[in-house]
């Protein structure tokens, strides 16, 4: 174990997961002209951008990207979307995060988009911890990990330490 924790997934594992999720998203949306991916900052944004890159390699699907800033400690604070001008009205939307723990963050992120009436909302996560306190169903997941509430999952998607860690 290093100072970050026990490495559960390497960068190459994450890249394989990302490609698989991109294919799953494409299979769900191959009839659509355009979809929107919204990544929850910071690591969900990086993971979503990796998915967008793979979608562009495997399909002609037009993908708009939104970075969503959600205060994970207090998600009732104002949510900020960058860019804020992307319209999700009657478009399929995929909300992406690195780790699903209780479902709280994704619930508030989905709530942010409801007023814009997307045609469909699905979710994608790299790691599903299954500590659900909120009714969130993950549509596209990389890996499910059974962890205790005292354990922490850390996702690093840049640099030499890229990977998924348990600590």
Topology:
Blueprint: E1 6-10, H1 11-29, E2 34-40, H2 43-58, E3 62-69, E4 80-82, E5 92-100, H3 104-114, E6 120-128, E7 140-144, E8 153-156, E9 163-166
Helix pairs in contact: 1-2
Summed up, what is this model?
With 167 residues, the protein is of the alpha/beta class. The protein has helices at residues 11-29, 43-58, 104-114; strands at residues 6-10, 34-40, 62-69, 80-82, 92-100, 120-128, 140-144, 153-156, 163-166. The termini are close together.
**What would you call the structural class?**
alpha/beta
Mean pLDDT: 93
Which oligomerization state do the chains in this entry correspond to? single chain
Specify the overall morphology: globular
Q: Compute the number of helices.
A: 3
The helix/strand order is EHEHEEEHEEEE
Low-confidence stretches: none
Largest sheet: 6 strands, mixed
Main sheet strand line-up: 4-3-2-5-6-7
SS elements, strand count:
9
Classify the helix fraction into a percent range. 25-40%
Q: Which radius of gyration do the C-alpha atoms yield?
A: 15 Å
Beta-strand residue percentage = 25-35%
How far the N terminus sits from the C terminus, by CA atoms, comes to 9 Å
